[in-house]
Design goal:
The protein is 61% helix and 15% strand. It has helices spanning 2-11, 19-38, 41-59, 63-86, 88-105; strands spanning 110-114, 121-125, 129-134, 141-146. The strands form two sheets. The protein has a two-stranded antiparallel sheet. Strand 1 (110-114) and strand 2 form a beta hairpin. Helix 2 runs antiparallel to helix 3.
């Protein structure tokens, strides 16, 4: 418990992890993985710069400057996401990943199957075995086998 208290005292009045630091961390992670395969000194240098800047921002006591940087990051991120939302290809990619995250969240309790007649996607409760399901869109019945 002493270490946690000492760390909390050390971090009081410091910036910590904010949205820009999270983005820097993910940038560092991607660059680091790429540098494992590419073996470039420029890539390794960018990786080091991202890590050092992230640590500098995390331990900085100049909260006003870090807040301005974080706000500039949020403004940039908002503008980019608004422009991407207008692009049909990126819009469909975002919808795909959102659907994937919902499926991952519901994995312990739900299973997803498609209707063989109308290709509608059905969300079924997770009950193992063979079941007969009625599609709400086309009202046709079909057999479903849920293994896991």
């Amino acid at each position: 418990m002493k270490f946690a208290e000492k760390f909390m005292r050390f971090m009081s009045g410091r910036n910590g992890m904010d949205a820009l630091n999270h983005a820097l961390f993910y940038t560092y992670l991607v660059l680091w993985i790429l540098s494992l395969f590419v073996r470039s000194t420029v890539l390794s240098g960018l990786c080091t710069v991202a890590a050092l800047y992230m640590l500098f921002r995390c331990f900085s006591r100049n909260l006003d400057a870090r807040r301005r940087e974080n706000m500039a990051w949020w403004n940039f991120k908002t503008k980019v996401s608004q422009k991407c939302a207008k692009t049909p290809v990126l819009k469909s990619v975002a919808a795909f990943f959102k659907k994937l995250s919902v499926r991952a969240k519901n994995l312990p309790t739900k299973r997803y199957r498609t209707c063989p007649h109308c290709k509608a996607e059905l969300c079924l409760p997770r009950r193992t075995g063979k079941h007969t399901v009625r599609c709400p869109r086309c009202a046709k019945e079909f057999g479903v086998r849920i293994i896991i």
